[in-house]
């Protein structure tokens, strides 16, 4: 009879902490946005998609799930329905993206829609919904066509939006709210912010938020002048995540193909590593004749 479990000291495989491989500068983002030919319906649709991705940083599936009534042009907000975790959220959207949405909705979408209209915002050439792989393919094509020496697709704009707003002075809590990362901390109720203030911070820190703006950003004084949030919170609020941790989570949640063209997916890799660790622990336990540990050993988490 063993008095201790030798498998308890077994070192489990770890997942690396990967930062986003590429992030666009303001000028590079503008180059990509200028690639679609806006003289036809498809090009106008694609420009509107790129503008929405760049302005809001929403995920690929969240773009595909948008309906024509989700954009509030008067308030400059976008309702993201059934995002990750089946949660709805409202995010600000810049004036320029709203303007391109208006051009697409009025000039291009009527030529693409096929009755009965189910309200899907972005449609294919024959009126069908775009598939996730098709959206990735067309966005990657414009990134490659810009010839900026960087690879990526929809998630590249998510990385870019978060990075540029952070560099221009946006508080990390507002970036979390934009990205839909409200589950990162048990202090979630205190770090949520009103859509009114989030809209103000987005306008002040996102280079493409204002119509006709090409990279001018707000001063620190302008950021300090933003109205206080409607939701009251304690005087001391512990930061729920650092900027580097936010970038790591962005890289880990990328649901598109890797930038080198392989078909490896982040989630599949994580499940594979977890399964391998579980198998090793169970095998070692059987060899020494002790009770097997639980199958969920959390191998994919970062262990000290």
Task: Describe, in plain words, how this protein is organized in 3D.
This protein has 304 residues and is mostly helical. The protein has 2 domains: 26-227 and 237-257, Intergrase catalytic core (hpI Integrase, Chain A); 265-304, no CATH class. The protein has helices at residues 26-33, 41-56, 60-64, 95-112, 132-145, 154-167, 172-179, 188-191, 195-205, 220-224, 243-252, 266-288, and strands at 71-72, 77-80, 89-92. It has a 3-stranded antiparallel β-sheet with strand order 1-2-3. 45% of the residues lie in helices and 3% in strands. The radius of gyration is 22 Å and the shape is globular. The longest helix has 23 residues, at 266-288. Mean pLDDT is 75; it is low at 184-192, 228-238, 258-277 and 287-304. A hairpin with a 4-residue loop joins β1 and β2 (77-80). α2 crosses α6 (154-167) and α6 (154-167) packs antiparallel against α7 (172-179).
Summarize the structure.
The chain has helices at 26-33, 41-56, 60-64, 95-112, 132-145, 154-167, 172-179, 188-191, 195-205, 220-224, 243-252, 266-288; strands at 71-72, 77-80, 89-92. With 304 residues, the protein is mainly alpha-helical.
């Amino acid at each position: 009879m063993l008095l201790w479990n030798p498998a308890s000291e077994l070192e489990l495989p770890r997942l690396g902490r990967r930062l986003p491989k590429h992030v666009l500068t303001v000028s590079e983002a503008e180059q990509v946005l200028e690639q679609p030919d806006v003289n036809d319906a498809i090009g106008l649709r694609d420009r509107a998609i790129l503008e929405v991705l760049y302005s809001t940083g929403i995920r690929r599936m969240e773009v595909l799930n948008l309906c024509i009534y989700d954009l509030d042009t008067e308030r400059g907000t976008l309702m993201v329905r059934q995002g990750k975790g089946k949660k709805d959220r409202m995010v600000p959207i810049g004036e320029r993206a709203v303007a391109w949405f208006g051009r697409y909705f009025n000039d291009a979408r009527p030529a693409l829609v096929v009755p009965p209209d189910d309200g899907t915002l972005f449609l294919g050439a024959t009126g069908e919904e775009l598939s996730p792989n098709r959206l990735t393919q067309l966005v990657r094509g414009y990134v490659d066509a810009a010839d900026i020496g960087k690879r990526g697709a929809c998630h590249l704009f998510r990385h870019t939006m978060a990075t540029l707003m952070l560099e221009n002075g946006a508080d990390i809590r507002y970036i979390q709210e934009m990205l839909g990362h409200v589950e990162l901390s048990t202090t979630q109720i205190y770090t949520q912010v009103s859509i009114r203030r989030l809209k103000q911070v987005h306008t002040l820190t996102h280079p493409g938020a204002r119509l006709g703006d090409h990279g001018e950003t707000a001063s620190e004084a302008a950021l300090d002048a933003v109205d206080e949030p409607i939701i009251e919170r304690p005087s001391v609020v512990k930061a729920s995540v650092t900027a580097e941790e936010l970038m790591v989570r962005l890289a880990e949640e990328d649901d598109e193909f890797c930038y080198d063209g392989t078909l490896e997916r982040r989630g599949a890799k994580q499940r594979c590593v977890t399964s391998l660790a579980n198998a090793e622990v169970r095998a070692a336990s059987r060899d020494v004749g002790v009770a097997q540990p639980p199958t969920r050993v959390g191998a994919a988490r970062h262990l000290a």
